[in-house]
Structures are given as structure tokens and as C-alpha cells.
Amino acid sequence: MTGGPGSGKGIQCEKLAQKYGFTYLSIGDLLHSDLAIRSERSKLIKDHMKHGDPVPTDIILDILKDAISSSLMTTKGFLLDSFPCEIRQAEEFECKVSLCVVFIGRFSGHQPGGGICNQGC
């Protein structure tokens, strides 16, 4: 789910998750939870946040992979809040985390809708 800050992404994700049995994963919540663990990864996240830099996609993908793996057997699907923001991130997600996904939303400079399913990564 993509949209600007305060646009209601989280609320809509929560409603959809409850209605259809999906797992709602907020990238912001996952990053903050990871910071509480005090691992090497959390130190990297903290450094990026401290300097106002975006957290690298590879770190976000690692966190997502962990969260998805832990809920895989108990959910009908996943709703991601605020990720991906760019087509490149969607492609990396597909190659590193998922075999086939459908993204609905607006990517930087692209129109809404459209699925990505390149299984030859």
C-alpha cells in the first residue's frame, strides 16, 4: 500500500487484513521493532536514521523476509505498508523475497496498478 504520510494506508491495511485474513506489515513498525533488538542490523538502521538517510533496500528486504517467513503458515497473504516505493524495489522484493506478487499503487513516476511477475531472477 502506498500513499503519503497520514493518507490512511495503515487504517486501510488493518481493515483489509482483518476482513480477508491477511497479515499487515508496516515497514515503519518493523524497523522500530528491529531497533529494539540491538543487533548489528539495528545498528546500521540507527546510523541511517540518525543521519536522515533512507534505510537501504537490502536491509528492508531482510526484515521483510524475516517477518514474512514467521507468518507464512498462518496467513492468507500480506499487506505491506509503505513498501515498495519504486519499481526497482518491487523487482528486488520479487527476486529476493517472493516468487510472484501483485503490487497495486503508485510507484515514483508510474501509474497505479499492474503486477510484476518475473520468475527468472
UniProtKB/TrEMBL annotation:
UniProt key word Transferase: yes
InterPro entries with a match to the protein in the record: Adenylat/UMP-CMP_kin (IPR000850), P-loop_NTPase (IPR027417)
Protein name: Nucleoside-diphosphate kinase
Source organism per UniProt: Staurois parvus
PANTHER family linked to this entry: NUCLEOTIDE KINASE
Pfam families per record: ADK (PF00406)
Keywords: Kinase, Nucleotide-binding, Transferase
Top-rank taxon: Eukaryota
